[in-house]
Amino acid sequence: MSAEANLAGLYPPGGQEMFNPNISWQPIPVHTVPESDERLLKFPLTPCPRYEQLQTETRHSAEYINKTKENWQFLEMVAKETGIRDISLESIWSVYDTLFCEQAHKMDLPGWVTPEVMTHLKELKDFGFEFLFGIHNRVEKARLQGGVLLDHIRKNLTKAANASAHQNLKLLVYSAHDTTLVALQTALDVYNKIQAPYASCHLFELYQEDDGNFSVEMFYRNESGKEPFPLTIPGCQHKCPLQRFLELTDPVVPQDWEQECKNYLWVWLCVDPFSFSLLFSS
């Protein structure tokens, strides 16, 4: 629906395209795949045992543990008021998102939801998004998550740069979720640690310079009243040469996603009165 709404704005009908004088719209195809086959735009990507192991490690990181301790009383209050038993830093977003939607639609919020509570929920929700793709071992998480989409984008940029004039691809548009955008920006190391608001857009622009070489510019549109903000990948300038852009993003692009997802360790702790051992299995 979001893709169709955007396309309705991009391609308003004119002349013979107006099939109804009262409807300023024309059908534009949106290509999708079954949810079971989706491996490009829905994040986190699953199943991926190695990613799940990294998430378990993240839960045991000092940053995650300290954040939980600092907010434990608040989390208990939210659990009591909502009836959600297993409330945590990574699940708090569902509470905030529900209240945010109700607030946006002018619905009355529960009495316990004060402006201060909403601010606190928002802060923890943003941390929960960072938990998904960062905090601990960002590069490897990126290879298993946002790096998959980035790989697809890199290939299209390279294809467009190598295409002849009559084959030149002009525009590719993906419509997805806030987690999709956060996964991509975390892989690029340009995420601002704030959940992407509705209708946010990350843009890649490919330019051919006067010397014939190509460069990539990135922008982030997350505020309707302002021009898109320029983004610069660490290690390059805003107008980044395509080859340099590819070099800088190589570490976060998976070579074999399914195999890398299988590269995990199970750990068994075996204890009896006479022995103590650790067994690692890949």
Automatic annotation (TrEMBL):
> How is the protein disposed in the membrane?
Single-pass membrane protein
Task: Name any GO cellular component annotation.
Answer: lysosomal lumen
On whether Disulfide bond is a keyword of this UniProt record, the answer is yes
Which Pfam families does its entry note? Answer: His_Phos_2
Where does the record place it?
Lysosome lumen; Lysosome membrane
Q: What is its EC number?
A: 3.1.3.2
Q: Which domain of life is it from?
A: Eukaryota
Keywords, comma-separated and alphabetical: Disulfide bond, Glycoprotein, Hydrolase, Lysosome, Membrane, Signal, Transmembrane, Transmembrane helix
Biological process terms in GO annotation: lysosome organization
**Catalysed reactions, as listed in the record:** a phosphate monoester + H2O = an alcohol + phosphate
Gene Ontology MF: a single term: acid phosphatase activity
What protein family is recorded? Belongs to the histidine acid phosphatase family.
Name by which UniProt lists this protein: Lysosomal acid phosphatase
Its organism's taxonomic lineage begins at: Eukaryota, Metazoa, Chordata, Craniata, Vertebrata
